Inverse folding.
């Protein structure tokens, strides 16, 4: 971290000090390649802090952190500010911007469209400058067009499922329902999702899809049935970065398309999603690597939707995307639910869970941490996610 002149032995005490100050859990002896995305985010932050920089640029530093880890990071940032370090804090989370920043500049399409003291602007003005999308007056307006009474029969039922990183998880999601799956980093949510999708083996329990038990699962079998998974790390596990966008979107369908029709069919599928989802690109032949994070996420969503899911598992669907893309993705999730798709929404952003979920299941320490069926709030989710002793169920 400190350059070629510094040995790992010399660096380690400083890194250990920063890990303690940030109150994070990180094994300093493992290779970075095997870390989860949230742990890699922490390493990136440590790499900046360990240099004793005079100017520190933090680009979406909290996108994979828990509220507790975020609070510890902000304490460290304030300490750096008091020592004269200049901080660029790049984020789409207005609550965090309000908490840590004194001035704000908004860039849209490469141009500064708003700049000045943060207290001079309302949230609505900032969001309008960022995306020309007016902020909703309250969370209820985000549910326009959806009624809980429209939720249908069970699509996916899980009973006492056990696997790597979790055990004895039971839940059910119905047609047209958005089921939030909340928890902190290390709770076992991603391992649970990957087990449902056949990427990891289950060790006990049962999974029932549309009334039939799925004893042996593989991603191909799940996709063909209509159980589709959007992974949390779009670049490592979701997209083929050097492949054309048309191929990416159709990659779940490649075994269904006749070989001689494939290029034209792939382009047609992509063009449909490009128009309906507002994917900004130069064309179907552009490589996925060249898109912004928000547009990459839209391409990954289009890939999942091309398989016509009955149950869609979304693992951190808005991580690292801007406000405009986030609003588009929220609208898409609500439309899918209104069309009868059962959605499991995994998110570390408790505000996101509060806005979107009809019901919330909590995972804590690899186990069920409780259920919220009404009065869903950030505070209630956080209490259960962090394993508070009072009230395991609400």
């Amino acid at each position: 971290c400190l350059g070629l002149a510094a040995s790992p032995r010399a660096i380690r005490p400083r890194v250990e000090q920063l890990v303690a100050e940030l109150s994070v859990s990180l094994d300093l002896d493992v290779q970075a390649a095997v870390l989860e995305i949230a742990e890699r985010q922490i390493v990136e932050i440590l790499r900046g802090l360990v240099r004793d920089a005079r100017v520190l640029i933090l680009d979406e530093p909290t996108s994979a952190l828990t509220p507790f880890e975020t609070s510890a990071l902000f304490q460290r940032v304030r300490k750096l500010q008091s020592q004269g370090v200049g901080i660029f804090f790049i984020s789409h989370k207005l609550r965090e911007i309000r908490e840590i920043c004194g001035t704000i500049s908004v860039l849209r399409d490469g141009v500064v469209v708003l700049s000045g003291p943060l207290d001079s602007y309302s949230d609505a003005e900032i969001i309008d400058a960022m995306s020309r999308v007016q902020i909703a007056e309250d969370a209820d307006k985000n549910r326009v067009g959806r009624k809980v009474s429209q939720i249908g029969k069970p699509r996916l039922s899980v009973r006492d499922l056990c696997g790597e990183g979790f055990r004895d998880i039971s839940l059910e999601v119905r047609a047209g329902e958005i089921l939030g799956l909340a928890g902190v980093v290390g709770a076992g949510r991603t391992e649970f999702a990957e087990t449902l999708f056949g990427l990891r083996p289950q060790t006990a329990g049962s999974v029932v899809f549309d009334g039939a038990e799925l004893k042996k699962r593989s991603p191909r079998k799940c996709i063909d049935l209509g159980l589709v998974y959007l992974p949390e790390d779009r670049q490592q596990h979701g997209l083929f970065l050097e492949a054309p966008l048309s191929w990416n979107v159709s990659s779940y369908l490649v075994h269904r398309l006749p070989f001689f029709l494939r290029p034209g069919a792939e382009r047609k599928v992509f063009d449909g999603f490009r128009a309906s989802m507002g994917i900004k690109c130069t064309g179907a032949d552009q490589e996925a690597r060249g898109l912004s994070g928000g547009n990459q996420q839209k391409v990954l969503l289009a890939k999942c939707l091309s398989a016509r899911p009955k149950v869609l598992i979304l693992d951190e669907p808005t991580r690292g995307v801007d406000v405009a893309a986030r609003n588009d993705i929220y609208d898409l999730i609500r439309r899918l639910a209104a069309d009868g798709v059962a959605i499991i929404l995994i998110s570390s952003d408790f505000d996101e869970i509060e806005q979107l979920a009809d019901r919330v299941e909590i995972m804590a320490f690899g186990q069920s941490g409780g259920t919220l069926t009404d009065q869903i709030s950030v505070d209630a989710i956080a209490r259960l996610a962090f394993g508070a002793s009072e009230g395991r169920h609400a």
